[in-house]
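Regression check, phosphoenolpyruvate case 253:
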Amino acid sequence: MRRKIVAANWKMNLTLPQAKELALRLNTWVKIHKPVAEVFIAPSHLYLEQMNKDLRNSSITIVSQNVSAMPNGAYTGDVSAEQLLSVGTKTSIVGHSERRAYHHEVNKYIGKKITHLYENQMSPILCVGEKLEDRESGKHFDVVREMVSVALERQSSENLKQNLIVAYEPVWAIGTGKNAAPDQVQEMHSFIRKIIGEQHGLQVAHNTTILYGGSVNAGNASDLFDQFDVDGALVGGASLDFDEFTAIISARK
Ligand code: PEP
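Current build output:
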């Protein structure tokens, strides 16, 4: 059975006291409500060690928002997979559209990040998604195919079969309040599963958890989760609001 996951991407928000408070509230809520979905939180790199300690006995998984494409060395400001692992973090988001847009990250480079994660027995949440102009010109499938297949081309199918999460996040839906329609999301998720199957075999495709991200909120989550190939969500803005985020988690039955 594929994992059902609702993940919070806190981006560059919250001070350490605010992050600790929200994480501890969520932890208490998860203990009481025992949701069907696994809950992930991606705080700032700065807080990973502290939050891994605070949530030591929790079912919530603390993940990184990014990882370097290099194993170690003279890369000022970067954080390596090995360093993340040394503070107890085993999963990292890679290829978020904000990294692609503001840091010019391209598919091959994102593939190198994934390689380093697997080399350290860690795992990726690979974000892919087309821009508005790609969708309007009918190129969205080609763009997403390239993002998935280049990032995964050098990975071993065995690693992918054990642990691969993909997040489909159309850029035009991120932070805009305008989510993709459930049928558009289902169509793209099933396409992503097909590409993974062609490249790495049906078992990898079947095991891959595919999350949707882009203006998910308490009001639209259930309709999105009703889609066959939608295993969960990656949530930005709404994950900073305790009531909104817990309502999204509850919607994942
Ligand atoms: C994101 O950036 O990963 C995201 C999904 O953001 P939002 O939920 O705010 O659209």
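Comparison notes: The radius of gyration is 17 Å. The mean pLDDT is 97. No diff flagged against the previous build.
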